[in-house]
Amino acid sequence: MKIFLLVGAVLSTSFAATLAHANDEALMAEARKVATTLPPKLIVALQDEIKKSGPEGAIPICKDMAPKMAGEISQQTGWKIKRVSLKARNDARAIPDPWEKAALEDFDKRAAAGESPAKLEKGEKIGNEYRFVKALPVQALCLNCHGPADQLSPAIKAALGQHYPNDRATGYSEGQIRGVISVRKAL
Ligand code: HEC
Description:
The protein is of the alpha+beta class. The protein has six helices and four strands. It has one domain.
């Protein structure tokens, strides 16, 4: 009898663990979907606007349209969405919290060791919340506004200086990690 109870207990524990695992995977897939909605739309909008009015004219895309779109996706999905960076441009909304900072530092190390930055992501259940971050790699387009100072146009330098006196988000090269998109949801 005891042995049956024991087997039953072991089976139900591993069953519960399997369920929990499946649940975590489903949450991660959902988080990934939310986190990957914004960046491609933003890139298209940036490309269009840079073509029309130069990089300095496209600043409002990153400054106003990105948070607005993030807000809309939040409303549709129930996930909170942020963009954070170890070298924030916007101090008011891009400073990482300790969990995000640890992920960013880990991603930088792994990218430097040769992992593809586009694949770097982390998902974790913490207390009653699920959190997920996905790296945003620097592409050629980004260098217009995040590249080395000597490659920025005078107009973009002036505009950035005016909007972001504490800007730390220049000096990047292609393939580095500019930051992460960070999403979270209460469970
Ligand atoms: C037209 C100029 C411009 C281009 C091109 C651009 N950005 Fe930005 N980026 C900005 C500005 C301005 C901000 C600050 C937005 C704000 O005020 O929240 C910003 C902020 C960010 C942030 C939020 C963290 C922070 O430092 O404030 C990330 C992440 C980011 N950009 C990534 C990228 C990536 C990746 C690309 C290329 C795919 C890119 N950006 C292209 C201007 C640009």
